[in-house]
Amino acid sequence: MLDELTSIQLSEWQVYDRLEPIGEDRADYRIAALSSLVMNIARAYSGMKGEMTTPDMFMLEWDKDLNEEDEPRRPTQQSVEEQERIWLAIASEQNKRVKKQKEREKKLSKHPSKLKGKKK
Q1: If you placed Cys at 58, which of 10, 32, 41, 62 could pair as Cys (CB 3.0 to 4.6 Å)?
Q2: Which residues, 6 or more positions from 45, have their beta carbon under 8 angstroms from its beta carbon?
Q3: What is the number of other CB atoms lying within 10 angstroms of the CB of residue 113?
Q4: With bands split at pLDDT 50, 70 and 90, how would you rate the model's confidence at 72?
Q5: How crowded is the C-beta side of 45, counted as CA atoms within 13 Å?
Q6: Residues 6 or more apart whose Cβ sits within 8 Å of residue 113
């Protein structure tokens, strides 16, 4: 395609992209607008007071120069032991949920009236 475009046509496309962006910047703005809308609906529904959000509040600042204080912390590599501990904790919690669910089902099977509502 670049072989077929003249430099004038390429320049026109660059100007058009600045006026009507069709790339990731536009996608970021759409998500920011949606996030702002959802937040404002949630605020109104919950009765929160204060200023409504705008899409600009949710826009990512990719080109922002960070000083040392603002620099995000880089994630550290997890050791095998850390990963194992995390997975064991997840499995333990899931096992507790399954056990509670089985106990609940066992109680309900002993008292079928609780399943269908109380009989008169």
Answers
A1: 32
A2: none
A3: 9
A4: low
A5: 6
A6: 119
Q: What is the pLDDT of residue 77?
A: 80
How many of the other CB atoms lie within 10 Å of CB of 73?
5
Tokens standing for 100? Answer: 């509670």
What number of CA atoms fall less than 13 Å from residue 51's CA on the CB side?
4
Longest dimension (CA), the chain: 86
DSSP state of 63: T
Please tell me the distance from the alpha carbon of residue 13 to that of residue 33, in angstroms, as a whole number: 26
For residue 72 the two structure tokens come to 């995000």
**The two three-digit tokens of residue 4, written as one number:** 């077929």
DSSP string, 11-65: HHHHHHHHHS--SHHHHHHHHHHHHHHHHHHHHHHHT--SPPP-GGGG---TTPP
Integer Cα distance of 87 and 105 in angstroms = 27
| Paired tokens of 25 | 């910047």
